[in-house]
């Protein structure tokens, strides 16, 4: 019986190991599809739960987070139950018990929502090729994708049937069978149009794109290949990211800034980048004094431009919620969405999306994003919850320090620190001179017993406690903001610099006489 028990334990361990290996090797899309199957299983066999945005017809296989929040891109979703890829319903039975008949690609197009692609395939004389022998992958635009094409582009394709339309359709095809498992992130495959590559991105949330078009019905198998239905018509890519910027007059000011910062060669070379490209209008919105300062400072300019770039390709269709992404500058941007809008740091400032190049993608933005590292001290303060202190610093005649290149650290009390304050504004302005410390400091480098010299000539003591880091009686209340030359510490109280020994304090208080 002991041997029997050992064998059962061994079988259980091996079974668990196989499950873990299967989960580890499963692609993100397959993991999301599996979750959709689990959520749809109560409706019958081979049923997948789908989430549809209630104000549009965009549908997604559901992952765990989306299922519980019932939201995509911040908007409520409606749950629907549909046949999983490769299955169909039979009248009078539960679920989707029947496998779709395995027919050629041409006939498959009609049953997966790509009948317009089927029609154009016949018109372009592609029908015989995709009905015949072979092993193809067809990234087939949905009917809605064709309908969304601008009229002039569609007319240009259709009017020259034998060349342009055939070339366009061939660019949607690869001369081998590629399942979603084989569509690896960052891979590319030669298309059947002059071997121009199609670019694949397979994101961790299960979304797969080809040239930034989302696969909305992947893995529709056919006798001579496989069909992936996509949500837009894709076009051949020949320019790198720098060329996209170089060819658009609306990005003229960005182009000049990139050249001045020596970043042109970066976007001409190998790699994978996302560029949030500020338009000429975005540059014009910045105060001229600020813009001139940054453009005249090579370090600040480089930080500004690197803050608009990611070191990976982020297609807009891959985004279903906000996510912090590290920029080339080192700080993070929250890249998200609000309904149909792509957002940066919660703002819908992306005006043109998914301009794909050979080494990345460009999204146009209507606002310039200035990182803390390119800001002077006054700009850091104006972007924080220290409005009262900032105005008092200005009133105290300290603007030259706040706008200059002097290495300083500002100890800025929160607005709440001034509630109930009985001292006059003139007294407060004098006090705030001792809220500017010499040197650009980091709170992480402060140590217990350290003394800091203020512009007012006083020395302030640092106290390190288990859960607090304090300078005299004020404790640091937020993360540092590190600017071009200076740092901002937000503190919870107005500083009260020491005025004597403990005995002096007792002598000055009538209660202890």
UniProtKB/TrEMBL annotation:
Keywords: Cell adhesion, Disulfide bond, Extracellular matrix, Gamma-carboxyglutamic acid, Phosphoprotein, Repeat, Secreted, Signal. One of its GO terms (cellular component) is extracellular space. One of its GO terms (biological process) is extracellular matrix organization. Its main location: secreted. InterPro entries: Adhesion/Biosynth-related (IPR050904), EMI_domain (IPR011489), FAS1_dom_sf (IPR036378), FAS1_domain (IPR000782). The keyword Signal applies. Gene3D superfamilies: FAS1 domain. This is Transforming growth factor-beta-induced protein ig-h3. SUPFAM superfamilies: FAS1 domain. Residues 102-234, 238-369, 373-495 form the FAS1 domain. Binds to type I, II, and IV collagens. It comes from Takifugu rubripes (Japanese pufferfish). Plays a role in cell adhesion. May play a role in cell-collagen interactions. Residues 44-98 form the EMI domain. PROSITE patterns: EMI, FAS1. GO terms for molecular function: cell adhesion molecule binding. It is found in: Secreted, Extracellular space, Extracellular matrix. Residues 1-24 form the signal peptide.
């Amino acid at each position: 019986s002991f041997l029997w028990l050992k064998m059962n334990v061994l079988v259980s361990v091996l079974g668990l190991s196989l499950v873990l290996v299967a989960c580890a090797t499963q692609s993100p899309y397959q993991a999301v599809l599996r979750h959709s199957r689990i959520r749809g299983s109560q409706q019958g066999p081979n049923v997948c739960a789908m989430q549809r945005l209630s104000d549009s017809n965009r549908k997604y296989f559901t992952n765990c987070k989306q299922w519980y929040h019932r939201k995509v891109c911040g908007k409520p979703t409606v749950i629907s139950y549909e046949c999983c890829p490769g299955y169909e319903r039979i009248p009078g039975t539960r679920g989707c018990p029947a496998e779709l008949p395995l027919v050629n690609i041409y006939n498959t197009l009609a049953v997966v929502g790509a009948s317009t692609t089927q029609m154009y395939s016949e018109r372009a004389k592609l029908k015989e090729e995709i009905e015949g022998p072979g092993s193809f992958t067809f990234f087939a635009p949905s009917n809605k994708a064709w309908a969304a094409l601008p009229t002039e582009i569609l007319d240009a394709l259709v009017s020259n049937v034998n060349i342009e339309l055939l070339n366009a359709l061939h660019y949607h095809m690869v001369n081998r069978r590629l399942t979603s498992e084989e569509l690896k992130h960052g891979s590319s495959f030669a298309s059947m149009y002059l071997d121009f590559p199609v670019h694949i991105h397979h994101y961790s949330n299960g979304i797969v794109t080809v040239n930034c078009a989302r696969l909305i019905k992947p893995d529709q198998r056919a006798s001579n290949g496989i069909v992936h239905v996509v949500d837009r018509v894709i076009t051949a890519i020949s320019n790198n990211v720098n060329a996209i910027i170089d060819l658009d007059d609306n990005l003229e000011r960005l182009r000049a800034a990139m050249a001045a910062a020596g970043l042109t060669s970066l976007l001409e070379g190998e790699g994978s980048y996302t560029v949030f490209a500020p338009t000429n209008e975005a540059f014009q919105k910045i105060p001229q004094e600020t813009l001139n300062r940054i453009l005249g400072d090579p370090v600040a300019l480089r930080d500004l431009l690197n803050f608009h770039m990611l070191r990976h390709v982020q297609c807009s269709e891959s985004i279903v919620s906000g996510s912090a992404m590290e920029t080339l500058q080192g700080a993070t941007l929250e890249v998200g969405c609000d309904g149909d809008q792509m957002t940066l740091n919660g703002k819908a400032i992306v005006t043109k999306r998914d301009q794909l190049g050979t080494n990345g993608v460009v999204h146009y933005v209507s606002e310039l994003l200035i990182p803390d590292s390119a800001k002077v001290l006054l700009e850091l303060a104006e972007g924080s919850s220290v409005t009262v202190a900032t105005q008092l610093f200005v009133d105290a005649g300290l603007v030259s320090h706040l706008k200059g290149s002097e290495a300083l650290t500002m100890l800025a009390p929160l607005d709440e620190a001034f509630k109930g304050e009985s001292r006059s504004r003139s007294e407060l302005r004098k006090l705030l001179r001792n809220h500017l410390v010499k040197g650009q400091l980091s709170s992480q480098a402060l140590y217990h017993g350290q003394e800091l010299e203020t512009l007012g000539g006083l020395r302030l003591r640092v106290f390190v406690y288990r859960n607090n880091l304090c300078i005299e009686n004020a404790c640091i209340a937020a993360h540092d903001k590190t600017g071009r030359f200076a740092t901002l510490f937000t503190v919870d109280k107005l500083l009260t610099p020491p005025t004597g020994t403990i005995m002096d304090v007792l002598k000055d208080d009538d209660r202890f006489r």
